[in-house]
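Why this split exists: single-chain examples teach little about how molecules sit against one another. For that reason, every record in the complexes split bundles all components of an assembly together and asks for one structure covering all of them. Below is a record exactly as it appears in the raw files.
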Amino acid sequence: MFLKKIALAGTFAALASTTAYACEIGARVSIVGNEFPAIQTVGAGAQECSGAEVTTNLTADHQKINVPGMQGNPAEYTSAIIANSSIVALMNEDVIRPLDDLVAKYGGGLQKSQLITINGNIMAVAFMANAQHLMYRKDILADLGVEPPKTYEEMLDIAKMIRDKGIMENPIGGAYAAGWNLAQEFNNMFLGYGGAHFKPGTAEPNVNSEAGINALNMMKALSEYMNPDFLTHDSNATNAEYRAGNIALLNMWGSRAATQTTAEGVTDAVKAGHAVAGPMTVGGGDTPASTLWWDGWTVAKNISDEEAEATFVAMMNGIRPDILQDPEVAKQAVWLIEGYQPTEAAVGVFEAAKMGTTPYPMLPYMGLMHTALGNELADFMQGKESAEQALADVEAAYVAAAKEKGFLQ
Amino acid sequence: MRHSTFFWFFLPTGAAMLLFIAFPLVSVVLQSIYAPHPAVLIEVENCTPLVGCTTETTIDQDATRELREREPLGRFVGLEIFFDRGHLAITEAREAWSSSQSWGEYFDKLGNLPFYRAMAFTLTFTFVVSPLVILLGLIIALTVNALNERLRGLVIFFSLLPFVVTPLIGSLVLFWMIDSRGILGSFIQFLAGDPSLSLKASTGLMWVSIIVYGVWHAAPFAFVIFYAGLQTLPQDQVEAAQIDGATRLQQVRYVIVPHLMPLVTFVALIQLMDNFRVFEPIVGFNAQAHAQTLSWFIFNDLGGETRQLSSASASSVLTIIGVAILLSPVLVRTWRDFKGKV
């Protein structure tokens, strides 16, 4: 038995060293991407390659800089780490290359489900899945004798109980910051009520509908149980509230689930009470009020073949299966990498996939809709105008932008 | 000066102005009257993890490239972008006018259009902050000037700090201080006796916070300029005023302020320009739900997942026009003074 273990350890060590030797690149690699733990792991893995310089620029502002940074010739960034929303911008501007030849040559370890195929071409390699789902304080819910909410209606009931008992004044958290976050929460709720953002087969907006009004009213009801500053709270600020023990229920990104209790200053009660569950449904619907995401990497079009090859090899090293042997890394995300065993923190995202959560729409004009939603919904959330008026404003703002970009005539 | 001498003398400046001022202006105007080509859309099959293959719409790159190569500037739209809802909103503003019963209702509807909402905030900010900055700067300058020589250096250093802090950082610092759990936020709650009071949740209080930040940040600038001006104040005039029995206030009113008047004009010009394109506090205060400005529109147009270059360019042109209108009274006056002297 003991010998077997040693032999196993030896094999692993040998495997690790061969892969380390394998990553030898001959041209520069420059990566731009979002910053959260899993992406930092991938970036660090790419940087282990030797032979040429590998630089990373991982920042929350990645989508402001990735398109301009890839439009030049040669492109500044040889790879952009993106999600299903942000690949659209890169596709629209035609700055990423098909990866079929590189996958055939170097992509042996990839699973078929990792290949993002658009119109028959592999355009990106996904390495993790993500979704927003419920996080909650099991200690508080247990004290109240209630199950974690399965629907947003139940969430409201539990929030009311917590407030009435005087446990917390504002028990619900949400990334409702005006702009991208608020729009995303609307998307979740809107899809949960069965809405579709566009009239089928066209770029015509379709949010000023019953589903849209229901979604806004539910968001308004939830916001009554939030910190009054909710329109300035993005994911980071919402998590800070959760970690400080100020909120008990929140809809949060799966990619944040594992690190929720590891930051500095997390109270012991939160550490012991933190739990995750699947996304909630709303209004009696079956589809969760959430969206399904993948994160992956691309290779720039305007670079030499050597650079493209080096980039592909380095990125492959960043997502090689043996990074999962580090238990810290394994729980950073729901990895799509071969050999991944779901951890406790992954329950929410897996549940989301199982429940048939709608993927975030990969449409060329979805970005404009998202921006319009982010700008125009804040008035309603502040009680300055009706839901109908807010949604009419969204459609008008979207139509103006879509006309400019040539999606509508 | 001979013409050729003047030419060679002026050439470097002229070339720099052409390169850094004229070309960008031409470029931004050009980009605002051209928009991207109509998108050629096709239905394709996409395959993604956990979901499988679905039929989705995407842009036909080959067809789009062909269009782009034929007309690289895009399609000419004239002033269409300027008049659309994101900018001057001509159609919507006219509709609001014809459907409104009263002025109040009209302004209400106008306030729902992004450009006019942004204007309401920008103009309020500009016309409240600029005079306050001048006044506060003058008061600090007079106070420091009256201080003991030894103390002066130290006081000047500390009064300059708000101006030294990067605007974005300065506004972030204030943003966290006025948070309902921050030191200033809690203090204001204590003063008002209302534990649920939140500066960030109220549009009015958010405006006040941003204005306070604007004054805090820019007052040292006015102070430095005025303080420098005070060093050139002829002492005999002040002494003459003192002999005539002028009080301290009268000295300031009739001797010091007239002496500093050209500097006041200068500070007013810079402040009007700066405040009209206010931007950093909106980002720093996360205030987009309560206050938006033209500069913030540009940032937002370029920061979304789909960049709107034409719209951002149109906002830039509108900013330039706005600054020109704001500065025109001062410029006209300077021009008149100049004509008077000749």
